[in-house]
Amino acid sequence: MLSLALAAAIWVAVHIGIAGSPLRAAIAARLGDNGFRGLFSLISLASITLLIMAYRAAPHMALWTTPPIALDTLALVMLPASMLFFASIASPNPTAVGQDATMASGAHGVQRITRHPMLWSFALWGAVHMLANGTLAGLLFFGAFTITALAGMRSIDRKLAARHAYGFMILARETSVLPGAALVAGRTRLVAGEIKWWVLVGGFGLWILLIYLHPRVIGLAAVPG
């Protein structure tokens, strides 16, 4: 279990201590943005490999038992997570790598719900699996992803505000970190047609695919029989 805790700490440190800190700017100043991205990708790959290996080797000590009805509910929570993920890659996403130039055009599509759709999909995925797993190993493994996703939202905001102050001001005025907050506050509104029908179908299809593959790849059914 110590190895898993250490691997989880390394994963969090890599994403918060490097990507989300002034250290990123120092490295990028020497290597350039593309050089930093390449180096960071290699470090991330190494750290996630270490994390997965440690999780597989760790004893899975139960902390709680999740009842079947709660597992059904958690499976449903994966539907919006799948929708957010698919929408984040199928449409312009100003907070994604290399797409920050689109910020000045303001909110559009899924950005009106949250300006961090991909990170929210990861955060929901991690939280769902922590609760469903109910083990110390699951808490450490999935918790590491949840922490980095949630912390990454503010980190990306700070980076974009520093790089593109005017564009980020426009985007932030019409969007929110918390899903739906900008809509409730009246700073934006959903516009028919901005989220294409095929994006919704794709998100739903991804959810169905994950449920289908879960027992075949992971060995456990996503929805109790």
Structural class: mainly alpha
Averaged pLDDT, please?
87
Number of strands: 0
Helicity level: 55-70%
> Largest beta sheet, briefly?
none
Spatial extent as radius of gyration: 19 Å
The string of secondary-structure elements, in order, is HHHHHHHH
Contiguous low-pLDDT stretches (5 residues minimum) are: none
- Figure out the total of helices: 8
What's the end-to-end separation, in Å? 31 Å
- General form: globular
Strand residues, percent: under 5%
What does the model show?
With 225 residues, the chain is mainly alpha-helical. Helix content is 69%, strand content 0%. The protein contains eight helices and no strands. It has helices at 2-18, 22-57, 68-90, 117-133, 136-163, 165-174, 181-184, 197-217. The longest helix is centred in the first third of the chain and has 36 residues, at 22-57. The two termini are 31 Å apart. The mean pLDDT is 87.
Brief descriptors of the model:
mainly alpha, 225 residues, single chain, 0% strand
Please describe the topology of this protein.
Blueprint: H1 2-18, H2 22-57, H3 68-90, H4 117-133, H5 136-163, H6 165-174, H7 181-184, H8 197-217
Question: How would you briefly describe this protein structure?
Answer:
The protein is mainly α and 225 residues long. It contains eight helices and no strands.
